[in-house]
Write a structure and sequence with these properties.
One of its GO terms (cellular component) is T cell receptor complex. Keywords: Adaptive immunity, Immunity, Immunoglobulin domain, Receptor, Signal, T cell receptor. This is Ig-like domain-containing protein. Pfam families: V-set (PF07686). By secondary structure, the chain is mainly β. Helices cover about 0% and strands about 35% of the residues. It has no helices and eleven strands. It is globular and about 40 Å long.
Length: about 140
């Protein structure tokens, strides 16, 4: 039997701007190789002063926009998109400040770039964050 290999590209991306410049996620930028039906773990470490961080995972297939997979909260369950519930999961560990993404029964179609993102900590007046520019 011939095994099929897949490549999971891991890149760093901070989806949301942060006000302090200190909150961030760290991911490896290396490719991973796995055989079909393996379990793969994609690591993400986060740095924040927030005591209740929200972490997000996204998948970006070639020539597509990123797709939301799941989010994890310090307190509570978070949510997972229905298409990913059976094989994708994550556990937020607030002690080690990690939120690894686990992919069970990996498939060739899982070859993608996986992004970890951290909800920003915003302080001060946030009204300008929501102001729309006016076309003149």
């Amino acid at each position: 039997m011939v095994s099929t290999f897949l490549f999971l590209d891991l890149l760093f991306l901070s989806i949301f701007p942060v006000s302090s410049g200190q909150d961030r996620v760290e991911q490896s930028s290396e490719e991973m190789t796995a055989s079909e039906r393996d379990q793969v773990i994609v690591w993400c470490k986060y740095i924040t002063t927030d005591t209740d961080p929200y972490l997000f995972w996204y998948q970006q297939l070639p020539n597509r926009s990123p797709t939301f997979i799941l989010n994890k909260l310090t307190f509570g369950e978070g949510t997972t998109e229905p298409d990913f519930k059976k094989r994708f999961s994550a556990t937020l560990n607030s002690t080690s400040k990690t939120v690894p993404l686990m992919i069970k029964d990996v498939r060739v179609s899982d070859s993608a770039v996986y992004y970890c993102a951290l909800r920003p900590t915003v302080t001060g007046n946030t009204t300008t964050l929501y102001k729309n520019p006016v076309n003149k």
